[in-house]
Amino acid sequence: MSTAKMSWPEVVGWPAAQAVTQVNTDRPDVAIEVLPSGTSVAPGFSSERVRVFFDGTGSVEATPTVG
């Protein structure tokens, strides 16, 4: 069973760049996609990806998760 971190609820409201730094510190093995909220993304799960969605002020809007 993996003990790797899978979600980052603590970064909601943070500036996107700061959130990316935190995710990268916790999980340097995943690719991080930084996207404006409402962006259409391809469906499907990837254990090697974390998407960080930010709002109009550049703050993280939703909990980033692996997938």
UniProtKB/TrEMBL annotation:
Cell membrane among keywords: no
Molecular-function GO term, any one: serine-type endopeptidase inhibitor activity
Domain of life: Eukaryota
Name of the protein: Subtilisin inhibitor 1
Record keywords, A-Z: Protease inhibitor, Serine protease inhibitor
Biological process annotations from GO: response to wounding
Family: Belongs to the protease inhibitor I13 (potato type I serine protease inhibitor) family.
SUPFAM superfamilies registered for this protein in UniProt: CI-2 family of serine protease inhibitors (SSF54654)
